[in-house]
Design goal:
This protein is an alpha+beta fold. It is built from seven helices and five strands; from the N terminus they run ααββαβββαααα.
Length: 209
């Protein structure tokens, strides 16, 4: 099994290489030192653009997300091409192209019907050329969850049950805390599973995040 490192350590290595290589000729000269240390939840890509204005961006993948998932066609939250005005991750990337300085980003990004918990660092080419420009995007995806569509159908009891479920309480214990019978809690949990498309209580707890 190959040795992997944390996102923080690899992000710092990437920035250190960027600092030391003022005249890096290509993206590979920046990301090559960290590539052998990537974990399966990490993504390495190059975002390229040609000239001005800020348009025509394309993503070239170096390493893709490899965590097993049932989510179809999951590749990268940027996609192969993306709209810089609308995409949730456009701001740190646009900022990097503008300032010519590395940008760090950590947040939850909603893309389509999925929530991504993301750590991201973007490292630019030090000096932009008129003909082409690029930046290295290094990302760790901490979790991917489908966005619940049924929150409007949940009442105060539902929300309380979900909170206690996420805290690890059993059905009987939830009932005791909410002064509801175990049977009532069970019925509520079955309804919540149907609403959120969950198969098990564990799946329900995760989908409710």
């Amino acid at each position: 099994m190959r040795k992997t490192s944390s996102f923080g350590d690899l992000a710092q290595q990437l920035i250190d290489v960027w600092i030391s290589q003022e005249h890096a000729k290509d993206p590979a000269s920046l990301y090559s030192p960290i590539r052998p240390q990537l974990a399966v939840n990490m993504i390495l890509a190059v975002v390229e653009k040609a000239g001005d204005p800020v348009s025509g961006f394309e993503v070239r993948f170096v390493d893709r997300y490899k965590v097993p998932t049932s989510l179809a066609d999951l590749q990268f939250p940027l996609g192969e091409e993306f709209d810089f005005d609308l995409h949730p991750l456009s701001s740190p990337i646009a900022n990097t192209f503008s300032t010519r300085r590395p940008t760090l980003f950590s947040d939850r990004a909603m893309i389509g019907n999925l929530n991504f918990d993301i750590d991201l660092v973007v490292v630019p080419k030090r000096k932009a050329a008129k003909s082409s420009d690029w930046c290295v995007v290094f990302m760790a995806i901490k979790s991917i969850l489908r966005r619940p569509e049924a929150w409007k159908d949940l009442d105060d009891v539902d929300l309380s049950i979900l909170q206690l479920l996420r805290e690890g309480f059993l059905t009987r214990e939830i009932g005791e805390r909410l002064r509801k019978s175990p049977r009532t809690v069970e019925h509520r949990l079955e309804r919540l599973k149907a609403l959120l498309g969950a198969r098990t209580l564990h799946d329900l707890a995760v989908r409710s995040l």
